Batch of 4 targets.
Target 1
Amino acid sequence: MTDKPIKGGVATWACLPGFPPAVIFPFTPGERFGVRSLYEFQMLMYRPLYWLGRDGAPEIDWDLSVGEEPVWDETGRTCTVRIKPWKWSNGETVCADNVIFWMNMLKVKGPRFGAYSEGYFPDNLVSFEKVADDKVSFTFDKAYSTNWVLLNQLTMITPMPKAWDRTADGPADATHDIDQAEAVYEFLMAENGDVVEEDNSHRTRWADSPVWSVVNGPWRLKSYTEDGVVTFVPNEHYSGPNPAHLDELRQVSTTSDEQQYELLQSGDVQVGFLPPGMGVQPDGDPTKGGPNPLGDGFQLEPQILFNINFMAVNFSNPTVAGHLIRQPYVRQALQSCFDQEYGAREVYQGYGWSQTGSIPVLPKSDLVSPKIAERGGFWPFDLEKARELLADNGWDVSASPAVCVRPGTGPGEAGEGIPAGTELSFSLRYWEGRPSLARLMAQFRDDAAKAGIEIRLEEVMGSVLVAEDGPGEKRMWQLSCWGGGWVYNYPTGENLFQSGAACNFSNWRDAKADELIAKTVTTDSLEALYEYQEYIAEQAPVIFMPTFPRRLFEVAGNLRGFSPINPYGLINPENWYYIDDTADGAS
């Protein structure tokens, strides 16, 4: 039997619980900067300058990129990018001005963009300019790794149409006058609506907006309902490759893994995911699907991303909890209480693996420090080591929670701002509606208690958690876990661990880390990458957690074009199509 494609049809995608698309404006702030709003929503409509992931490999897809490959001059400091003449849905041509418009906004509002890191793009540019209607040049302050520039810098750019260059008073010109960028930004953020508010009423206006309806991707937004159903239809003016086969793509909100699984069983969704606790990988290879509880009617596809998982710890908390977190030995003890192997083996049923530091373990590469790989991380699960760290630094661990008995800042004392009698106790907020995560957090709580650390658990809706517990000064949260972490382009760390980075979720500032990160972006030397990641692993500015496929995708058996899985988390539903599985033919 051969596959006989069917033109048209509707495919419904079940969103992860608690994470509806929250921002349509591609200039997404750090508190909403994640796969769900960017890669699974915005980029269907607004194509970035460079498309990450090609045929399942972690590289640039030049065919799907608006920009052609950068051309570097002999100094290694200036690159020129030609813009392909794709069309916006209002008839405008994608051009150099659209890139300059974005760059002017980034120059003015960089700290409000989730991928911004102080001192890097665009701060490390001497100039950027339009050199032809279809060409833009970027001159850097020194020579950098060209691989890093492409993957971590130029991928930040999303060309914006002239139709967006306006304020509430009418057309503006932030494209040519950078002083107007602030007002245009404020207008576009107002058109987006409150990025923290969870009510969908402001999102229902997006489809009919004269701003957001101007798209250059293969899809446009048809509707966003009060109850969170998102419907896309093909952009009839799309001029890039691979126009959509389907008539509609729907994305539905879910409240729990169980509810989503019921939708799969009933046939109400064609793309969903197997709840992590239900999937079993008997061979321990998380990259391959094991037995499928849904049977032959669905294809099981593990979504392996180039990512790490971690729990953020809040260095900016102004209470005694913040003083505790700022002590390296406390963070090291917390890391030593996390049994990642238990999580990978028992909670994630063989679909998980231990994350030993700031560089992804999978997909396998030579980027992971051999020193870290050999020892299983600087702080593998070891409750006795955790107790030793605490006892050596002024804590009585004979009871739980442990009590500070040697206050002060000298050797063997608890540290600044920690009075005698302080109990070692933290609140931990985590993403609700995920039984596997709840089980992992409960195990962490129980193990930590054996070492003298009290963990007080609280479930919070995922999108609320990310919005409220994101980077920022003097926020009151202590430990926060949204069940994920960070998907890298190239794993140099300036987004996560650079002082002042928009997505430095722990609000950590460390001069040595900044220095080591700076080395990784100016050379392709693996030794620089190893030195950086070893320091991060030793300092534990986050608590590394077992990593697992972002989802065990369940895809309807008659839906094709879904794989290969993009290692960065982007999706291409324009490639999806149904087959006539009743038709017979020679194979």
Target 2
Amino acid sequence: TPPGMDRPHLAKGVVRYVGEPVVAVVAETLGQAQDAAEMVSIDYDPLEPVIDLDEALADEKLVFPEAGTNVIGTAGELDDSLFANCEVVVSKQVLNQRVAAASLEGRSAACAWEGEKVTFWLSNQNAQSCRDELMANLGLPQEKLRVITPDVGGGFGAKIGSEQEAALLSLVSKQVGKPVKWVETRSENLVAMTHGRAQRHVVTIGGRRDGTVQAYRLEIVQDVGAYPRLGAFLPVFTQMMASGVYDIPKVESRAQTVVTNTTPIGAYRGAGRPEATAAIERAIDLFAAEIGADPADVRRANLVKPEQFPYQTPGGMLYDSGEYVAGLDSVLDAADYASLREEQAKRRADGATKQLGIGLASYVEITAPNNTEGETGHVEIRPDGSALVLTGSSAHGQGHWTTFAMLVSEQLGIDLEKIEVVHGDTDLIPKGVGTMGSRSLQLGGTAVHRAAVDVKDKARKLAAEMIESDEADIELTDGKWQVRGAPNVTVSWAELAQKAEDGLAADVHFVEDRPTFPFGSHLAVVEVDVETGKVDYLRHITVDDAGVIVNPVLTEGQRHGGIAQGAAQALLEEVSYDSDGNPQNASFADYAIITAAELPSFELLTMETPTTLNPLGVKGIGEAGTIGATPAVQNAVVDALSHLGVRHIDMPTTPERVWQSINQA
């Protein structure tokens, strides 16, 4: 964060966005607190707000006058000769709009002092990082601070790290001498919790008329809101992943990061990677339209081929493994692509009111980008033969307990119901990183897996001593240790745990050599009413290859949620402000969260391309659906109207925007 741009606990002299805390009111009941808050009178001197990106770039009005500019960062250089040898060059400005994370549960916190030690209960994604931030914020040593993240109802990146509200809570608690809690309302959540995306792109793509893409440029302006937080880092991921799944010889990008008088931007499911995919996938469709080619053919011709892995991208990424062409073709086959195009042609010829749109997106994403921090896992056999698993990964709806217990059960033969998985308590698990960036299974899961293997190795040695047999002859069968071929003498896990002098446990801190790169292809089918602009979302067929699948049910759940959120951005969701900086979406009455009524039943294809970077062969799946779905659905809406001359519609593709684009075309 640039000097002087940290968000204070409470606004000091200047309020920079609607939703910024100004006063803390403490009461014994919610009703009392609301009544007291209404009695607070504040005199505001209106300032000229900086709302849109052009205003921010112009620097005529400043969010931080002392900084002298709204532009807090620029990265990347542009080469005027990039497209010199291209037969066709297409350029377009595209918007990746601001959205709200809108997790099932908003932000909440509780805090209690016991002597000189303070305990926090936080609705967050990473207890240990929250502890470290609070230690710095409050000036406390580690042993004086405990953070517990219990059963958290969703995060989507917006709950990474602690908030200033949490630190403020501890000061209030100490002053009043009682435990205190804070739970925001849904309206507060929509204007005060970090938003996501908020990038504007100019994509320029060039190549030959035979469909070969030779050069690609991505220009990014990132709105970080009133205070630079994780949003200031998002363009780094977007630039890293700019070329997507394509083997393009020349790729360049430039990013400008600006502050505005709006809610700060943080991570949101995919965090910088969906923005890169949305940009390149719109660019591929624009290029295909310009040369009159089928967008599926243009993709296939330019995809990185299997024999090119590990593949070094122009952006400096080393993709570990992939079957991009096979993924695309399997989606096309499952959708019966040729028949869809025939139906589309028939409707166009008939001048039908409802036109068919078919949208494609092929994607690759980086998972566990913070792989060098690794993750911790602990497995311990209790005296009753049950197992305790401690993990630095932090579940907030993903089902870590089930998957990690499965990994332990597979190694140790202990029934799932006898395995307890614990996360999110810094006293029990002092070292950990948490859950974000689709890192949990490949890092946290591998740490737990390896800890289970270590416990198994220790147990075999101890069992050999107890049975008085050679270690090489000892085997684990149905959760009991025995001499191979002699099941009449066995040793149970309980007996081993009771015999082990120093306990039967293992700790592992697993660090991956480099990140993994899951990939996939999505095909969306929509109907667009050309008289009203209304879009009906009919089908969605996907391949989301995340390496080896450990739990198919949980994998499917992650894909369902991701696809729904990705489609929601394409069709419905947008956080907007008026010219005075007033948010226009302070409740679900005017923020169009997607529901089951708007969604088709997803058609999910299975494909597994293992990675060699961890012993499980797994990659991340939590964000994949979001990354592929957004451009597939947006491309489908544009495709439905391409015969009318429509080349692009910014997200969300609302009936009003669609209707306007038809009339303008």
Target 3
Amino acid sequence: MARRWAATLADTKGVTLPPEELEPLLLEVAHDAVDQAGSKHDGALLRFTALYAASPMGIALADPDGDIVEANLALGQLLGCSPERLRGRHITDLGSTDHDVSRLEAGLEKVRAGRERYQERMLLDHAEDGQLWADVTLARLPGDRPGSVYPVLMVSDANELHLLQERLLHQNVHDPLTGLPNASSFTTKLEAALGAGARDDIALIYLDVDGFKVINDGLGAGVGDQVLRGVANKLSAVFTGHHDGFVARLSGDGFAVLLRGELAATEVVELVERALEDLNEPIYLGGHGIGVSASAGIVVRAAVEGGAAELLRAAEIALHRAKEAGKAQWMLFDPELDARDRGRYQLGAVIAGALENGEFSLVYQPTVKLARPDELAAVNAGLRWNHPEKGELDSDEFYPLAQTTGMTVPLGRWLLAESLAATARWRTRFGEAAPDVCVRLPTRLAIDPDLVLLVKEQLDKHQLPAQALRLCTDRDSVLDPRGEVLDSFAVLADLGAQLVLTISGSADLELIPQHRLPVRHVILSGPVVDALDTPEPTEAAIRHLTQLITRARELNLRIGAEGVRTHEQAARLRQLGVVAARGPFVSDSATGDEVDELIARHPGS
């Protein structure tokens, strides 16, 4: 159109048009422009009206003040009322809570200030259901006058999506069985409590149900689940409401509690004791009154004194100590004790490398005949760790750590192999004067299913008769439910190995007839021997020892003793019928070449 009129006005053929001729031309231009603009405006208006009416999204047109002028059917259906009831209401009136109203007010201000679009998820009033989660968009439409703005509100239903997201979020951070926050949620809460600027005291409590496996396996997993729910409820009842108490289920039968604020250890301990008492009260399920006990590890410190990992580790160590101390009790984390334990644990962690690097050696203790102390009855072989930094370590310093780290069997195998190698060397040098070697089996090795094969392989390797080996064990190994200890001992006895049982009382001695143990020697140990290491032993101690020795003779057993300190103690034992003994009264220990000299001075018969 513009090109056409430009051409018409420009084509004057060199003649200047007077105003009365130019005016009709300009009026014709204006009428043509208005006709075309009106046609396009009407079409756009019709299309907008159709879209507005048919849109599945709720739409409300408002005046510059924010009062709703028109609302479509979709918005009425979304809010549970007719569109007519929405006309005249202010946009902010649709908010369900004060917070939502404030957000709508803020959105209107931003749109008026020039922002193209404002979007939020919020709660709107629903005429029948009360509240509705909706995705709300506020936009601006140009007004009739330059600079004027008409707000438009667009609303889509987000209720089901929001509830689904909330449900998934809840499941992601909560334990489905107990409804408590889960381990992930607890870690997040703890890290927030220890975040930058934290000035509170922090108490972290780990709780573990004692013997839960007995309940779960004995009464069924369903009952076990109900017990865990009961535990969760009792813990929540005690700790929630105290110092921002936060209770979570970590895994299995493990729970954790976080407290914040001005805390004293005594106050935290009181809450823990109350919780442990409540857990002891029976929960009645299916006719069973089920009471549970729990162990608890407690850490109380200022939030600025360490990170989450250190705090969690401290609580775990305290819980472990509580269980080691007998369960059903609490233990407060002790930094000084922890420092000592760290050294022990570091020691235990490097046992495997020390064995491979040749840091272990044999240490021997002679057993002599009490009737002829210059003759050896046997040589007891043990382990010594020649630590590059800590020096010589006796077995009682590292065997408990080996038990924890699973190194007991490798150490026991090495002890047996090296002991038999030494025995073969003695027999070559001393012939019949060479003593038998006695090896005390750690419990884990005694119950090992390959024990018989291991012993036979080493005897064959060193060309030794089985009679040259004495295997010493104790009550715990005999009664250990794992493995087939009795069968292994029977086979070893058939091979010719001499089995020795360490006893400290009548109950230990009676294991021999009860289980038909093929034992040939018993070794008196502990208080029953220590009782004679006094100037005047009590009559009861002598009577007890006499009864043990009499019973051992009835069972055709040879009787020895260990831990004998003095010659006077050895003499008393001999008078009562003990035939051999070892201990400081002879020699504490001998290593390497020293044992050869010892054998040379104390030949066996």
Target 4
Amino acid sequence: MKQPIPVTIVTGFLGSGKTTLLRSLIEKRQSRRLALLINEFGEISIDGALVRGEAGADDQVRVHDFPYGLIAYGDDELFLPTMQAIAARRANVDHVLIETSGLALPTAIMEMLQSPGLAEDFVLDATLAVVDTPLLLSDQFEHGGGSDAAATVFGQQLEFADVVVLNKIDELDDDALLLAETRVRERAPNVRFLELAHKAQLDIRLALGLRLHQPTRTEHTHSYTPLATMPGPNAGVLAEQGRLNGHAHSGLAAHSHGLATHKHFHEQDPGWLSFVLRSDAPQSADKVRHALQEAVRLEPVLRSKGFIRTSETDQAVLVQGVRSRVMISVDAVRPAARRSELVIIGYHASRTRVAAVLSELTGTSWR
């Protein structure tokens, strides 16, 4: 009988560092042959481009882009045929990695993996939730502390995770890390274990091959055991949690997340918006940084990312913004594009006002 191909889902809120973590896993993959599905909440693929840059010409790593943040759900017509195509070349694939959009839950993928079209060829290995630890500690994911919409989707992403990866921790001391772990456990007591990603690096043995969702096989089929009912709001923690401790990954029973009752968060809440702003003029990196920080002050922008063209270098310049924290760096591999493009993601953010701020403070036209 053919063995199902393991699938790892990487979820996490906007700007948590999912793509950076994936790039490090590609670097450490050794002989593993990987298929990557990169899902973004926007019309252009910035993360997919970064992952391709890491993979280079390596034909053992194949990247598939899924823009618009709708992977495996609703009217997405790409996910099923893409996965079936991967199954058809199973002799050349050891593992599938799927990065969800920062505003999506992993449940649509989890449900599709159990569907008749995919259940014989794939098995969920684990779901990893990547957390921006400084934001967690700054109360930005608390209801009433930042955006309630962001707090809701962040909490739901943790709820469906097997592994939580605390990222961006290099300037945090032990007390801060213990507080972050406590906050995660309070929100998601059934998370199997937590890992620390120093410099966005994670031991690949703690990310791939965990086998946390091995199916129960019956003759030539396999299935997951569903819950009889969904737990209510006052449900307590499992009384017997010993089997969930540490890194003993074998023999763990599969668990159900009530997949059919959950949808991608941003489809339920139309307040989440993504738009692309473009400029044909050369940019100043410092002015772009200042303009994005000012846009965050004036509008509910939570994420910005893209490439800008500057007069200082012939290489592409990468912009990565999480709220007012904006990092700009030269991409040593990618040549500069003809124009600058920035993806802006926010909650009821005004495209017109953000474009006006960028245009005013950079002295160039953004539209």
